[in-house]
Amino acid sequence: MKDINILAGATSSFGELWGVSPRKLVSDVTAEALKESGIKRHEIEAIFVGNMLSSSLGSQDHLGAFFSEELGLDVPAVKIEAACASGGMAVHTACLAVLSGQYETVLVVGVEKMTDHKPEEVASALMAAGTDGEREAGATFPTLYALIARAHMAKYATTELQMAAVSVKNHFHASLNSHAQFKNPITEEMVLKSPVVASPLKILDCSPITDGAASLILSRRKSGGKNIAITASEAATDSLGLAQRESLTSLKAAAEAAKKAYRSAGILPNDINVAEVHDCFSIAEIIAMEDLSFFTKGTAAKNIASGMTRLGGKGIIVNTSGGLKAAGHPVGATGVKQVVEILQQLKGISGAKQVSGAKIGLTHNVGGSGATAVVHILKK
Amino acid sequence: MKDINILAGATSSFGELWGVSPRKLVSDVTAEALKESGIKRHEIEAIFVGNMLSSSLGSQDHLGAFFSEELGLDVPAVKIEAACASGGMAVHTACLAVLSGQYETVLVVGVEKMTDHKPEEVASALMAAGTDGEREAGATFPTLYALIARAHMAKYATTELQMAAVSVKNHFHASLNSHAQFKNPITEEMVLKSPVVASPLKILDCSPITDGAASLILSRRKSGGKNIAITASEAATDSLGLAQRESLTSLKAAAEAAKKAYRSAGILPNDINVAEVHDCFSIAEIIAMEDLSFFTKGTAAKNIASGMTRLGGKGIIVNTSGGLKAAGHPVGATGVKQVVEILQQLKGISGAKQVSGAKIGLTHNVGGSGATAVVHILKK
């Protein structure tokens, strides 16, 4: 794959943004990215919108044209949906658009407005990413990831304390991120004593319901300043439902997408300095680290708990934004925001959460309980 | 743009398919296309699903992975939504994917299941493509197109009889299409005497609510048999709402997309032999013929009424499938089915509805009341 240059990226604050509309969120993150990129608005030639829930929760479809008008762009625009991987798939599709030669410079926006609704409405809307069977059984995503956690615990002796360490690390990172939803540091004890959602997952093992938006400007042209490029953009799918999988302790789609991405970028997993992974639940980050070959199977939990992947650690530093857990998880925005976080790391503008000397970064965005996975590799 | 080869295409029957699931519809049209293409299932490298309403009416998101699993393909997959242009935009995005070089051969499926719901639920779900203001005013798409019709009548003296002629032509064409929803020929008198939906539009000026699916296999590789290629794939957007438009008598996005497509293909409008245009209402086909520069402004209605665009006519033959009006309008499938219809025309396998000597064809797919438009040009 030819490199795709990232001219700019921005995220909104993530959280309960009750006074802010999706229009305003997208308008602000686009204005910020345009300013950073130094390009003119009319140089944007197409828009790819990552969003899952605007139809079921917002009663607004046709988001491509909706934002094209709102942004005063008047260019081809489309909504990309792949459940919680909508943002990552929007980036992937935008990469294809730039590679196609039909568009030189494109805008990706990811956006979700979730907190204006009752939690049970949101849970129900999210389960549209699952199977009929899972819904009929009354499963929600915490239930499904609890099954995954139980399987991982049984096979690799992973502990609830090790899972708690994921949340503790990500809250610490979020405490350094002014845009994060939860900036409060927490302890393992707080996680273990927090209310159970779906055993063994406690509320502090779970990512929250969040409003937010993120934007990226991708181009064949190089950036005027330090050029950061996407050097691999790969996706893969697996069965929608857990019952159809061979294994619960790995997400096959994520492992596949990662393998393709390393091959495409011509690098090895350990060449990565910094990564944003899809920690929708604490167990998901542990499995992600194994699927991405950062650690061998069954060893991620103890390595994370040892502090290797925490800022200052000697391993690959993971989820400096705070991850989905603490920065928040506005579904369609998440995969876009992950790329923005890595962009800023490679530019060296991440301030207190900067990973020193970061040259190569990775993002890992997952849809549903693993039916879609998208991996991007960025380099400076 | 480099040509993109169409290895195969198929459509389901369109209509009230109460006994058939979306899974079955997509599975059948994909099997048919695979058989026709002569390629193996594992040669498909990605899937682009055109769909608008599965979230709001079907409570199923994540359709990319859903169909990837159902079809036993296990490849990157994504849902593309752009209201009633979802199918056309899925084809456009798939073209970008093939042009990108990342995927050699991809599958496009368009699908919609609409008739299992109460008409008012469907009307409400469809209005998610409009603006808040339009919804608050109680507008539905017939209302919006009635305003467009009134404006066209006022400016160009277009008559209700001329609009009726569009439906009569399309029902005649549908009578030759075994997959069409309405195969019954009708007369101008029947249209004029049919119940008023939103004056001046009568029920027989309006496209129906429909279930159906369509598929295409696109590739960099040429087909073994007669090769048909997409030689231009262009999209454009306009304001979501009518109130923000400069003119009601033309869809700016459609005119723009057409202009770009003619330039990209290096042809003139009159080089086209056969076209499928978005006749969601009879007035929409009249305006489409003008936006596509097939006729000068204000002359389409009388030319259509004269029979020029009907099978056997001396002009560009339009909507041989029966169009949205009579073949049916399963929203996400429509833009894909249009390309399949033109593919079959250029292959010369359209039987009783064959346009003799057709060499170049065009499709015109519109979202909402014109906020998105997609134009494809095919040649043999």
Going by CATH, the architecture of the largest domain in chain A would be 3-Layer(aba) Sandwich
Query: Beta-strand level of the residues of chain A, as a percent range?
Result: 15-25%
What is the count of DSSP helices of chain A, taking H or I runs of 4+ residues? 13
* Order of the strands making up the biggest sheet of chain A: 3-2-4-7-1-8-12-11-9-10
Helix content of chain A: 25-40%
Using the coordinates above, name the CATH class of the largest domain in chain A: Alpha Beta
Rg result of chain A: 19 Å
Protein architecture, described:
2 copies of one chain form a homodimer. With 380 residues, chain A is an alpha/beta fold. Chain A has 2 domains: 4-118 and 211-219, 3-Layer(aba) Sandwich (Peroxisomal Thiolase, Chain A, domain 1), CATH 3.40.47; 129-209 and 229-379, Thiolase/Chalcone synthase (Peroxisomal Thiolase, Chain A, domain 1), CATH 3.40.47.10. Chain A is globular and about 55 Å long. Chain A is 37% helix and 18% strand. Chain A has a 10-stranded mixed β-sheet with strand order 3-2-4-7-1-8-12-11-9-10, with helices on both faces. A two-stranded antiparallel sheet of chain A has the order 5-6. The first copy, chain A, has helices at 22-37, 63-70, 86-100, 119-126, 132-136, 141-156, 160-174, 188-193, 252-265, 282-291, 300-305, 323-327, 331-347; strands spanning 4-11, 46-50, 77-81, 105-112, 196-198, 201-202, 212-219, 228-237, 274-276, 317-318, 360-367, 372-379. The mean pLDDT of chain A is 97. In chain A, helix 3 crosses helix 13 (331-347) and helix 7 (160-174) packs across helix 10. Strand 3 (77-81) of chain A pairs antiparallel with strand 3 of chain B. Chains A, B: InterPro entries: Thiolase (IPR002155), Thiolase-like (IPR016039), Thiolase_C_2 (IPR055140), Thiolase_N (IPR020616). Chains A, B: Residues 15-221 form the Thiolase N-terminal domain. Chains A, B: This is Acetyl-CoA acetyltransferase.
